[in-house]
Write a structure and sequence with these properties.
This protein is an all-beta fold. A six-stranded antiparallel barrel has the order 1-2-5-4-3-6. The protein contains no helices and six strands. It has a single domain, classed as Beta Barrel (Elongation Factor Tu (Ef-tu), domain 3), CATH 2.40.30.
């Protein structure tokens, strides 16, 4: 029996660098994909993400928070987190130890409808093998 070919896809999208976060409910995150030109389109509505926001970016309250993407508009991701009472997000000048990032979180991101090209994971029988 011949193996069925599955076209290559990114299994789990890479982390995206954050350049802005609004103080609002829901939170709106703007990503910068200078080095990740193809990864942004692998993020989809319903995906869980985790934020990494080092203290020198302000808005330290968002660090390690997990939210769900509720809308995507280009490089802007609306997330079901209320950041209206958080400190403002800033882009620090000079050298920083680590960038602010958003990245996929949790196993629920590993399986979506395989009939579209907007999936972070594909399997032959849609059960992950």
């Amino acid at each position: 029996m011949a193996n069925q070919y599955l076209k290559p896809v990114i299994q789990i999208p890479s982390a995206l660098q954050i350049v802005a976060i609004t103080q609002s409910a829901p939170m709106v995150i703007t990503a910068d994909i200078v080095n990740n030109t193809t990864e942004a389109n692998t993020y989809i509505v319903g995906m869980a993400i985790r934020l990494q926001v080092p203290i020198n970016f302000g808005m330290f309250q968002a660090n390690n928070l997990v939210g769900t993407i509720t809308a995507i508009n280009g490089l802007q991701f609306t997330v079901n987190i209320d950041s209206s009472q958080f400190d403002p997000f800033i882009l620090p000048s000079g050298n920083v130890l680590a960038p602010a990032t958003l990245a996929p979180f949790g196993s629920r991101n590993l399986q979506y409808n395989n009939t579209t090209n907007e999936v972070p994971f594909q399997s032959l029988n849609n059960i992950g093998n």
